[in-house]
Design brief:
With 252 residues, the chain is an alpha/beta fold. It has twelve helices and nine strands. The chain has a single domain, classed as 3-Layer(aba) Sandwich (Rossmann fold). Bound molecules: adenosine-5'-triphosphate (ATP) and magnesium ion.
Length: 252
C-alpha cells in the first residue's frame, strides 16, 4: 500500500471536519462600531431570501449592548431564525456592561446557540460587535472568538477619512490572532461619489498594505430598511467568496 493511502484519509478527514465546522457560517465584523456590519448582514440575508429562497437561514448577533440590532432583524425578516444569546441594556463594552449589571458573560451559551443554528439551518450569518479588538469578556476579544471558533470572517470598512489606518490595524490583529479573514468590504456610510470614495478607501493601496482581497462595496442606501434595496446592494460583492466559496477554500 502506498504512503498516499495513509496520508490522504488523514488529510481529507482533517480538512473535511474544518469544512463542516465552517462551511455554513460567516462572521461579519468591522473596523469599529457603527461602520455598517448590520447593513452588510441585512443585505446578505435579503439577497439570500430573494434569490436563494430555498436556503434556511440562521442569524445571530454575537452579543448586544444598548439598543439591539436584533429588533431590526426581527422587523425585516420573518422566516429567519434570529438569536441574540447575550444582551445588556448598558451601551458600553460587554465586560463593563456585565459588571455594571451584575451579570456573568456565558460564552458557552453563545457557542451552544451557534451550534444549534448550524445543526438546523443551511447557512448562518453572525454579526460581531464593535471592531476586531472589541472585548467580549475581560480576557477575549472578537478576534479571539473568530479565531478559536474558526469562523470565516469578513471585515467591514466605512468609506471615510481614517479608514486606511483602521483597516491596517484590524488586519494586523486578525493576522496576529489567526483569524480566517476572507476579505474586506467597503461600505458607503454617507452619500459620496466614486472619486471621493476611491480617495478615502483606495482598493489597491489597502490590498497591498494588508494582503487581504477587497470583495466589493456596499453603496449608500437612501432607504437602508428596504429589502429590495438591501438585496440589490450586494450586486457588486464577491458572493462566491462570501457565501458560496467555502468548500473550495477549505479543501484545496
Ligand atoms: N450603506 C449605507 N447606506 C445608508 N446608511 C448606512 C449605510 N451603512 C450604514 N448606514 C447607517 O449607519 C448606521 C450604522 O450602521 P450599522 O448599524 O450597520 O453599523 P454597525 O457596524 O452594525 O454598528 P454596531 O457596532 O452598533 O452594530 C445605521 O444608522 C445605518 O443605517
Ligand atoms: Mg450592528
Amino acid at each position: 500500500m502506498s504512503i498516499f493511502n495513509y496520508i490522504y484519509p488523514c488529510w481529507f478527514r482533517k480538512n473535511f471536519i474544518i469544512y463542516l465546522d465552517c462551511m455554513k457560517t460567516l462572521l461579519i465584523t468591522g473596523v469599529d462600531t457603527e461602520v455598517g456590519k448590520t447593513i452588510l448582514t441585512t443585505s446578505l440575508v435579503a439577497y439570500c431570501q430573494k434569490y436563494l429562497s430555498s436556503l434556511s437561514l440562521g442569524l445571530m448577533k454575537l452579543m448586544q449592548t444598548g439598543l439591539g440590532d436584533d429588533e431590526l432583524y426581527h422587523q425585516l425578516f420573518q422566516n429567519v431564525d434570529i438569536v441574540t444569546p447575550i444582551s445588556f441594556k448598558t451601551p458600553v463594552a460587554p465586560p463593563i456592561a456585565a459588571t455594571i449589571e451584575g451579570q456573568d458573560i456565558n460564552l458557552g451559551l453563545v457557542w451552544q446557540e451557534l451550534n444549534r443554528l448550524q445543526s438546523q439551518h443551511d447557512f448562518i450569518f453572525v454579526e460581531a460587535l464593535g471592531g476586531l479588538g472589541t472585548p467580549v469578556t475581560a480576557e477575549l476579544t472578537v478576534a479571539d472568538i473568530a479565531s478559536s471558533w474558526r469562523l470565516p470572517t469578513v471585515l467591514v470598512v466605512p468609506v471615510k477619512l481614517g479608514a486606511i489606518g483602521q483597516t491596517v490595524a484590524n488586519v494586523a490583529l486578525a493576522r496576529y490572532s489567526k483569524v480566517n479573514l476572507k476579505g474586506i468590504i467597503f461600505n458607503c456610510i454617507d452619500p459620496t461619489n466614486q472619486e471621493n470614495s476611491a480617495n478615502l478607501t483606495p482598493k489597491d493601496l489597502i490590498q497591498s498594505l494588508t494582503n487581504v482581497p477587497v470583495l466589493g462595496t456596499i453603496p449608500y442606501l437612501i432607504n437602508p430598511t428596504n429589502l429590495d434595496s438591501l438585496a440589490e446592494s450586494t450586486s457588486n460583492l464577491d458572493l462566491e467568496q462570501l457565501i458560496f466559496g467555502y468548500k473550495w477554500n477549505y479543501l484545496v
